[in-house]
Amino acid sequence: xxxxxxxxDPEDSRIEAYRDIRERDLVRRDGMFIAEGRVxxxxxxxxxxxxxxxxxVAAHRLDALAEALAPLPEEIAVYAATQAVLERIxxxxxxxGILAIGRRVEAPSADALLxxxxxxxxxxxxxxxxxxxxxxxxxxxxxxxxxxxxVLDAECCDPLYRKAIRVSVGAALLxxxxxxARDEDALDLVERHGFAPLALSPAxxxxxxxxxxxxxxxxxxxxxxxxxxxxxxxxxATVRIPMALGFDSLNVATTSGIVLHHLASARRxxxxxx
Length: 274
What we know:
- By secondary structure, the chain is an alpha/beta fold.
- About 30% of the residues lie in helices and about 25% in strands.
- It has 2 domains: about 5-105, CATH 3.30.1330.30; about 110-270, Alpha/beta knot (3-Layer(aba) Sandwich), CATH 3.40.1280.
- Helix 3 links the parallel strand 3 and strand 4.
- The model has no long low-confidence stretch (mean pLDDT about 90).
């Protein structure tokens, strides 16, 4: 059972890591991140890839969280404070009343991550996705449609940023991911591991509905506005999603959901034919 520690002073040094997290979100975090809410806490406690470091909850929620907290080892501190003290610590109105600090156990290289994947399925290759809402939405869609892994280039924001985890509803702790070094060739990497690059672009040469689905795709998505670089598009099969006249783009997280649903549905149909 965890050790419950009452916190009465928002300046208590033991909860320093939780202070004003909206502004700093554990800057220079050394692999640590903030998890918020019951669903994300449950995923953190159950995960093999991440470990809880400590938990901070509203004291009135302790009874309701007893089952979630029970698996925590004794050395993991669970800090409990009144709602008012909790919000002074965090620096904002924390309606869920649950925060935790987690740590990533191991961050594999993109090469090692892809090498461990077996069988048919898809990965995502993200280029310069800098918006945490979009990053969280993409991870949520990836979990929903069974994506095997996500590879991020050096320009992408951190999926373990508090807001990204929250928007992903914890999926950022479920879908394996790795970050490319700045000098790594993303398309060479995915092709070497048997994934056919499939880039989404308003200027795509083919319609998504006409795509002949391969056993393994690396779906390439870029930031809204600039989109994917000409170099990435030139080396990938490109597809577009048809839209109403005069409008040619969707939110990148929405785009990810559409294309991943299409691929998953096509594979179910193909599986039913064998």
